[in-house]
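Render this sequence as a predicted structure.
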Amino acid sequence: MKNQPLREIFDKVRHVVTEPEWALARPLIEEIRQLKAERDALILAHNYQHPLIFFGVADLSGDSLGLARQASQVDAQTIVMCGVHFMAETAKLLNPDRQVLIPDDQAGCSLADAITAEDVEALRERYPGVPVVTYVNTSAAVKAASDICCTSSNAIEIVEALASDQVLLIPDRHLADYVSNHSEVEILTWEGGCVVHEEFRASEIDALRVDHPDICVIAHPECHAEVQASADMVGSTSQLIDWVGNHRPDKVAMITECTMSDNVASHFPKTEFIQPCSLCPYMRRITLEKIRDCLRDGSGEVEIDEAIADQARLSVTRMLEVS
């Protein structure tokens, strides 16, 4: 667990947080630390969370599935998911005997909202016998109606492991396009999309390269196909971070939720991060005040119907057995 001195935390966020902002946040961070100890709680923060949350109060940080997997390996009575609702559900699926809290239960996701379990059943009727691979960015009910889950980092591996000529990969059409371009399997999909990544355009990438001829552009596979084609590398959030760590470019544009660049920049001070910015409105619903409140009151507890949880967990564990 992270338990750094507060001054060290400010050193990590001072490139995006002013002294007055830090002065306001510091008492909340101290209160949250105390409440964590009292409740035997573990705070998970997604890569898209604000630096004050990411560095200030989180014990574990990373992408959605990585967080849930890490949490299952650490002893704590309560898990607080600083992310969106499907992430809290996934944490509950992999940690069924623990209390899982989300600071704002209205922190949703456009991808999770794009498809229902009934939609999956309709797809099965339309494409009988075709295996259904569901992105983890979906509700537990959709996971339960599917055969196996995937992440943006292992989607190609999961699809090819099924040894099927056709695969339904839902709900993100851009991730499906990415997999289709890197696999011989015929990919059928759904018209879902991420409100953050769909904002980016190839014209923005072209403009970046004009203004910064030496820039490296790395993009998430939830972006439009033309944005992916304009990038030097395409990968999941964890793969984007690893790429920066391995290549240490002088300048980089991470074409994903722009808060992530604020967090990654702290680890690579010699790299200049320049990019068009798109913020996730759902991630922004998680604040220090709401984290404090849910720890203090035990509010925002995540519950999943047992029958749905059993089937959804099966889809997730099948994925983990492959990748």
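Summary. The first strand starts at residue 41 and ends at 46. The mean pLDDT is 95.
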